[in-house]
Amino acid sequence: MKLWSGMLSGDLDKFAEEFNSSIKIDQRLVFDDIKGSIAHVKMLRKTGILEKNEADQIIKGLEVIKQKLLDGSLKVDLTSEDVHTFVESALIDEIGELGKKMHTARSRNDQVTTDLKLNLRDESKEILKLLKKYINVLCKKAKENKDTIMPGYTHLQAAQPVTFAHHLMAYSMMGLRDLERLEDYKKRLNFSPLGACALAGTTYPIDREFTVKELGFDSLMQNSMDAVSDRDYILELQSVLSIIGIHLSRLSEELIIWSSQPYHFVKIDDKFSTGSSIMPQKKNPDMAELIRSKSARLIGNMNQSFVMMKGLPLAYSKDMQEDKESIFDSVDTIKMALEVMAGQIETLTVNKEKMLKACKDGFLNATDVADYLVNKGLSFRDAHHISARLVKYGIENNKGLDEIELGIYKNESELFEEDIYDEIDIIKCVNERKSLGGPAKSEVERQIKFVQEKIR
Fold first, then answer.
1. Is 276 in the active site?
2. Counting Cβ atoms within 10 Å, is residue 175 exposed (0-12), middle (13-18) or buried (19+)?
3. Which of 5, 219, 260, 276 is catalytic?
4. Known active-site residue 305
5. Helix, strand, or coil here: 219?
6. Structure pTM?
7. CB contact at 8 A, 215 and 192
8. What is the mean pLDDT of each run of 10 residues along the chain (456 residues)?
């Protein structure tokens, strides 16, 4: 019998029943539902709405159901309408008709959002742990590559020399912001809707503050209509997870580029690569490509949640049943993506020689030629034009800036002296960039320390 079938006659159309059912998705909330129900029954006992012996029997029955689910002697009944129906039916099977009293002073409307908040609170903690693990791996790999010079790019064109450590720390800083967003998210998530009932509260003398403490919420939601119809906490988490996914996607794109034949900057470990079914020489960066693609999946889930909510009147509508599948998928997707990316970075092999050669071949010290002239008193605009002409000469004559004769330099400006070669040494070009946030070794070491202190 359906929980809501009191005034309706006949059975639901079989296709409508399947369409209406959410148990295949919300069975994931079964332990959250039991936890919330135990807190609710304890409150009913405290306020005298249920007799002590009645409440004790219900709580004991719920604990037995939990244990049976854990040891496998009880399975979630997928013919149930939803997880709440399953738990109540299992309780009635366990302790008899008394189980029907559990739902006193509660609706599935406040029950489901309570379950979902409990679940996402725990999932957010797990994602935080995985984010910290991923950031730690970035810092570890950065420590190993403080002296690894590589090209920095703008417009995907070689621009100025940096270090691989400096590049990785850029992603660490993104990760820190992701952590802050997740931690800040809990401030708005952790308010209890339990006790709002269907939308208008209840005439029973409930104690909402009691269940707040029992379930570890910070406070309670102050308006009963808002409590049952709020899904901001899903929209916000979808947004945060999408941003994390975008950061992982950008790093994936670079791993794919760096590991390709024209670059050979890095080698992705075989544990995170696949081969071709037809071309024996192929080694494909499939995990990085999948992470790149799954970021689109996260954004799609976010869009689904936003569009679902945008036109709903207060208070609860059945549309909100569709809130779970997408957020559960996003949670699972980001957890897997963080694990895989951490593994890829940890096992990554870096081709230091190839990176350094790319810096020399790409005239990445051209800005330093201009800066040399500026330090001698020339305006930067004039110095920029002189440096550009020297680069053009180098391209036409297949020479790096450090290979061009001093006479050619002097033809462009008498300000050039023999010390120009020291000033445009690639390694010196990097380590002289000591401005806060720059790629100099000392500055990257500060960045690593900064990040590691933040994630302790």
1. yes
2. buried
3. 276
4. no
5. strand
6. 0.91
7. yes
8. 52 66 91 98 98 98 98 96 96 97 96 98 98 98 97 92 97 98 96 97 98 98 97 98 98 96 93 76 88 97 97 92 95 98 97 92 89 94 95 92 93 93 91 94 97 94
